[in-house]
Amino acid sequence: MSKLVYLVPLFPLIGFLINGLGRKTLSKSLVGMIGSGTVLASFILSLLIFFEVKAPGFTAQTISLFEFIKTKTFDIPFAFQVDQLSVLFLLIITGVGFLIHVYSISYMHDEEAPHFARYFAYLNLFVFSMLLLVLGSNYVIMFIGWEGVGLCSYLLIGYWFKNNDYNNAAKKAFVMNRIGDLGFLLAVFWMINQFGSVTFSDVFAKAPTTSTAVLTGITLLLFVGATGKSAQIPLYTWLPDAMAGPTPVSALIHAATMVTGGVYMIARSHVLYSLAPVSMEVVAIVGLATALLAATIALYQNDIKKVLAYSTVSQLGFMFLALGVGAFTSGVFHVMTHAFFKALLFLGAGSVIHAMGGEQDITKMGGLSKKIRITFLTFLIGVLAISGFPFSSGFISKDEILLAAYHHNKLYFWLGTIGAIMTAVYMFRLLFLTFFGSFRGTHEQEHHLHESPPAMTMPLIVLAVLSVVGGLVQLPHAFGGHAYFNEFLAPAVKVEEHTDPNLALKEYYILGGTIVGLLIIYLATRKFFAVDKFNGEYSGFKKILANKWYVDEIYDAIINKPLRALSVFLNIVVERSGIDRIVNGVGRLVNYSGRQLRLLQSGQVGAYILLMVVATLVFFIIQLFWKSV
Amino acid sequence: MGAIILSAVWGVVMMYSGILFKNKATPKYIATAGVMLLLVTNWLEYAGLPIFNVDTKGMLEFNSFGLVFNTVIFICTLFYFLLSGPDMEDVGDHVAEYFALIFFVLCGIAIVSSFKTLLMLFLGIEILSIPLYILAGSDKRNLKSNEASLKYFLMGAFSTGLMLMGIAFLYGATGTFYTEAMNLGFGKLNSMMSIGIVLLMISMAFKVSAAPFHFWTPDVYDGSPTVFTSFMATIVKAAAFIGFIRLFENAFGKMHEQWQLLMAVIAAATLVIGNLTAVFQQSVKRMLAYSSIAQAGFMVLSIFALNSVAKEGLVLYAAAYSIATIGIFAVLIKMKDYSFEGFNGLAKHQPLLALLNTIFLLSLAGIPLTAGFFAKYYMLLAAIKNGHMFWLVIVAVLCAAVSVYYYFRVIQAMYFKEGNDPGLKVSETFKTMLVLAAVIIILLGIHPDWLLTWLYN
Amino acid sequence: MFAAFDNFPALLIWLPLVTGIICFFLKTEAAAKKWSLLSSVLTLGVVGASLYFSGEKYSLLNQVSYIWLKGINSSFALILDGMSKMLCLLTALAFPVIFTATWKHQYKRANVFYGLMLLSQCGLLGVFMAADALVFYFFWELALIPVYFLASQWGGERRIQATFKFFIYTFIGSLLMLVGILYLYLNASGESFSLASFYNSRANPADQKWLFWLFFIAFAIKMPIFPFHTWQPDAYEQSPTAVTMVLSGVMVKMGVYAVIRWLLPLFPEAVHKFDNIVIGLSVVGMIYASCIAMVQDDLKRLVAYSSIAHIGLMCAAIFANNQSGMQGVMIQMFNHGINIIGLWIIVELIERKLGTRKISELGGIANFAPALSILLVIVALANLALPLTNAFIGEFLMFNGLYQFNVWYAVVAGLSIILAAVYTLNMVKNVFYGSGNSLTAGIRDISLNEKIILSVIVVLIFAAGVFPKPFLDLTQDTTNMILNRIIDK
Amino acid sequence: MGITEILFWFLTILALTGALMVVFSKNPVHSVLWLIAVFFAISGHYILMNAQFLAIVNLIVYAGAIMVLFLFVIMLMNLTTDTEPQKNRWLKMAGAVAGGCLLLVLVAALRDTDMKYQLAQVKEGNIGLIHYLGKTLFNDYVLPFEISSVLFLSAMVGAVVIGKKGD
Amino acid sequence: MPVNYYIFLSAALFCIGIIGVLTRRNAIIVFMCIELMLNAVNLLLVAFSKMHHLKAIAADAASNVGSEAQLFVFFIMVVAAAEVSVGLAIIVMMYRNIHSVDINFLNRLKH
């Protein structure tokens, strides 16, 4: 079955081609069917492969399709690798992807047909590239997917291309990703020249015998790529802007799958990382810092999607923290759980926006809990999950990460905890402002309010269920669980075992702490944020947070403006009046000297003969005297 | 020998034809016939069956080089007669005499291309120059023409004086007028020989209008009736060059290194001055005058290098340059307005003429597939082969690039600018001859060996 | 010297030459168009056949050598090895595409126009096949002259100055090269112009030092490399788009090709001596051109500068002197040709439909001409070397080569990837996205033949991007030959 | 110092002064007359060197024919009165200086050549006599002699073309 | 008589001629100065012919070395005569048109 893995990306590709070429002719319903059908197909296939892989005694397989780039010095095949890690991601991508396709069918229903088709074509293309990313058996194939998803996110963010802010957001996303990609690319070159190959197996085989410095360099460059793709400091600012895209897109690309590409990549190359402690430390620190920074910003955002976006950034930070402290599986595990509840939250938000007729500002909402029941309940579950309500998927994964951090470095643990607390705070704030209190919107909005159609609510429910139970595969021993997940991944990813005598005790502490904390937070937020007479204005420190620490402005000031100025300078000064002036100057010089030499021709015989005589004189002197000396 | 005698005789014939036939057109035909006869006799002589066997007492020698060169000259003359002959009638009513003078010039050329003693060189040069003084001034009422002929005459006479002084010193040093006999002297030049060589160099440079002895050229070419400018600028100049290289190869070949520097200076000066000054000209006629100086600069390279390549190249250059320039002048003569603007939009009204003109100009600019390229090619090759003074080559190349500038101004005017119909009246023969000339240019540009192989048999 | 038609190189020369000359005598515009298209398709067919007949046992089919000038012992010698075939393919492919793409364009005196086009094609093919220095020089000029006339006859406002600047600039270069050729000829074994004898008699390092520059300047002007590039934007801007396509799609490759075929093998020592200077210039040029491209308002100028940046990368990769870089350049010569022609086609379409190239006046075309926009986006993405498009293969290899040569060059040059994204996406955004204005509202979407042509290009882009093996194999032999000559010096 | 030397120096001084006067005398007619004097002096030198034929030809052709021709022309244009407008003083100065320098250079170059000890045969030696010269002229030099006729022809034609009145 | 004397004498005459050409602007005078230069040459040639003759007769009394130079002088005179006829014709023509023989009067052709 795993031999047929190439079919998994192939289906979405076909879907993309059909929808792309037939966007004029195909009817919306057909488009929707094709779009989601293909993804479903690959989901089923992935499931089959999953069971094959899960079966004991399975060893990672490489399915090479054809020679991609082959020179005398190195050879890069177009090959896929099937192992536990990739299969896991296959499931996440196709599964969540399928749900979101279904959701989109009705979310996008009032786009006219060609654009509708375009949308699904893009989505399919995205799934295709994402699958390439996780399936590739070497870094170049991974890079292909890597840039492919970047492209798709660009296309989807700018999906409503009439609006130039969206286009700018799309451009920003692409360019920032490109910056990361450059790092990735350089890492690839380094590997080619270091190991003579970029195939995972070869690279990992040669890694142990390589100097730590080199590995550190490579891993850091790879991490630069990751920061771009997974929106970490310093390249995270594109993600919040990316919310310009349709909400399902945000759910799929900017929450569930693409942004976790970086996590996948590092988990995939854990061999290199675990040999480069410095890089690990860097990853951890950057992750932690991102988690905290994003969380603080999220506290005072009023756009429902922006809040979710920053929470995504923050959660990604947690994942990197996990990777950085060596708990690769925990990171990946959090990817999975996060995929569930963050997709859920986004889709829920989508449903809310849908109900509000496109309104995204939570200060204009409130009291929706009665109006849109299902959405509210599922959303509530999502909130609880992300803020780590005991035994929800979020709780388990975060708990693992924090424990890992604890064993690595107490400080990380405490900071992480603060981050987790802030998560709970802003999520509850979001919840209250949206669903509780009284409605603050306009009247026609109030009339327009209605529950979304089943095509949208179904995915919500499914994801809600997953968010609740999804974590149980990794339930700690302390609560009578068993780490099935780690077991599954063990062949592909190194699982670090910390033998801690009173591990169980800590678990109980955390559990207790969480319950108490959540309770306090619940009451506190309810008190502070659920004020009906709230005017969207902040002041003082809040203002800074509301303005995202002014990071965008700073970047603009230190990068964009100077670059632009430089370009103008080069164009006007160097090019026009510099080089080109010189070139033309030569011509002008010729012209000028011609005009001057002309005057020698005075028209008077006497002068001519005089000149001749003088020349004769000179010749005599050269010939008779100068040469003899 | 045949060429010398026949051209002299034909000159006389032309004189009488003027008296016998009142019809202005007749002399033209007789002249054409004469040139053809010249070609035939010259050819027979080349083929080894000369008509006249005259004991020249070793004063003249007719080797294949000289004879091939004469052939080239005569062919050019033929083209010249057929293209511009009819236009002589507009200059004055002494058409027959003009032709006679031209034949005398040809006689002089034949001498210059075969002399072995300085006496013959001197006579040849004089026979070649004196008729030109007349032709320059043949448009009597036109002050420009007067001025041209006066300037030409005075400076020509002056340069003759210099030349004779040179000859005198050489005789004093070597005791002979025979070039071979002089050439025996190896080693260091004594000052008398140096003076002689320098003076001869100067006077010859004057004849070929090489800087800094070129000052007469623009004015004389500009002032003379365009018909005769065409003749002077092409055929006569080429002939002067053959004399130049004959003299310096046979007489001073062995002291090559000792006067090479001066030749390099002349070449460089000619190239630079000729090209740069041509850039700014407003009248095409005058531009062509300067361009002829510039081209002379390239030909001087052959005398600077003075090796077998150089000699081949000189013949090729003479052919390429003369034919192309004759063609351009032939068109120019038809124009009313000699300024660049005069050529505006010619391509629209006279597409064929414009095209042919373009070919000629490209050849002068030395673009591949035209004879001009191989001409320049040989000159550069000779100069590089010569070994030292590489800077001269670079100067030459850069000047060639500059030359493109003013040649293409004409092309641009013809093709890319709008202008009204100059209303040229051109006969069919004119067109055919022009086409023929262009064809020759192209053929020589594709396969110069077709000409050069004749040098070796 | 008149080669019989019994082998590909001769055929590739005579076919366009003869048809081109015939074209001058055609009366109607339609006839000229059809005739030239036919001829170019035939040429393409011949090249295709030659691709099939590769390898040792067909070597006779792939070379010509006829005594041309006994006197100076130069022969009309042509060869078709991998690299030549690649570039001939590009040339042969480019012309039909150009003819079809500009089919709707009305030229006055079309027969002359198309005749000159075919002649320039002949020149280009000749340059790519010449195995004799003099022949090479001939074709080098022959390719230039028709283009000069084309550009300054049918060009834009400032065409005369712009194209003349271009002409004289390149002419100076080629004259310097001529001097170099002559010098080598005199030193070559038995005073011969043949490529082989040039290869066999290598100039001593002292001479190489200045000979190198004589040649390099000529090629650098043609490519063009950073300080010599100023003719290019003007020329591209002023030429009629069909000519611009020839210029940027094919003619620019003359310089790159010449460097690989003539400069590297002839002056290995000098190359090793000056490689840092050249690569430095190229890399600076890449960044410089990319920056300038960001602030261009004229589509043509923008594409011109982006082309300068790409060429800079090629030049740098050549002088990196290693397998990867060389391979990358070989394949990129082809790919860049395809992509930039695609870009020009779109620019030409926009200009013809809307009568302007000013980015500031355009916008929102995607609303009114979706097909055009989609195709443009694809080509644009290929232009910034997205994976699975052809340019990625080339740039990947070239950057890798550059990286092997020196990490920091690769890093700095890598910045141009980001800048490329910036200006390309800016262009896409400002021209195609947004709500559009009264001008662009009037645009009609592309017609069938334009669609076909662009699809051909798109197909090529992906074909070469997904499965580059054939191209890599094709140029393998040349790459090895060149590299061996440099390494074993 | 014998009679030869005296004659030599006399003639030399005469020639030089004459030449200078040709250049500097304001009135063209005077210039002509001075030039004739120079020619006489030179002919004297010829005789001194026993080149009688040349001496006579010089007198007849130059002093006789050519100079008379000049005189005619000058008279014809009645330039007798000194009407020559002054030429730019600087140019004049430069001309004089240039000529002087030329002389200087020549002298400097020729001062010490192997010619220093060479003698020119004077008083005897019969190659200059007419019957010797005649033989050589009509044996060895017949070709140039004939060719010079072409020269005269062309000169004649030229004179006709230019001098003829009308048109 | 040392030949150097003759050399210097004719050199002096020659240069005087040149000076004349350079300083006068009456066409006829200029022309006369050119004739003066020619005569300087003639004198020099004759001197050399006698010199070489002297050298030659030392070896062989009957040799007529040197006669060629004297004949050369003869030809120079011939040519000079022809030149004069043409030159004067030109000057006369010019005088007809502008009633002056000032060489600088005609400078329409320049630059």
Structure described in brief:
Chain C is mainly α.
Account of the protein in words:
The complex is a heteropentamer of chains A (629), B (457), C (489), D (167) and E (111). Chain A is mainly alpha-helical. In chain A, 72% of the residues lie in helices and 3% in strands. Chain A has helices at 7-21, 28-54, 84-107, 113-135, 139-157, 164-195, 200-206, 212-229, 238-241, 247-256, 261-268, 270-274, 277-298, 304-324, 328-355, 373-386, 393-408, 410-435, 443-448, 454-469, 484-489, 503-529, 541-546, 551-598, 605-626; strands spanning 61-70, 75-82. In chain A, strands 1-2 form a two-stranded antiparallel ribbon. Chain A is globular, with a radius of gyration of 31 Å. The mean pLDDT of chain A is 89. Chain C has 489 residues and is mostly helical. In chain C, 76% of the residues lie in helices and 3% in strands. Chain C has helices at residues 8-24, 29-52, 82-101, 110-129, 133-154, 159-187, 195-200, 205-222, 231-238, 241-266, 268-294, 299-320, 323-354, 365-368, 370-383, 390-405, 407-432, 438-441, 448-466, 469-487; strands spanning 63-69, 74-79. A two-stranded antiparallel sheet of chain C has the order 1-2. The longest helix of chain C is centred in the C-terminal third of the chain and has 32 residues, at 323-354. Chain D is mainly α. Chain D has six helices and no strands. Chain E is 77% helix and 0% strand. In chain E, helix 1 runs antiparallel to helix 2 (27-59) and helix 2 (27-59) runs antiparallel to helix 3. The chains are: A mainly alpha (629), B mainly alpha (457), C mainly alpha (489), D mainly alpha (167), E mainly alpha (111). The A-E interface holds A 598-599, 601-606, 609-610, 613 and E 18, 21-22, 25, 30, 103-104, 107-111.
How many strand units of chain C? 2
**Main interface pair?**
D-E, 82 and 74 residues
Q: How many strands appear in the DSSP assignment of chain A?
A: 2
Backbone structural class of chain A: mainly alpha
- State the distance separating the first and last CA atoms of chain C: 35 Å
**Percent range for helical residues of chain C?**
over 70%
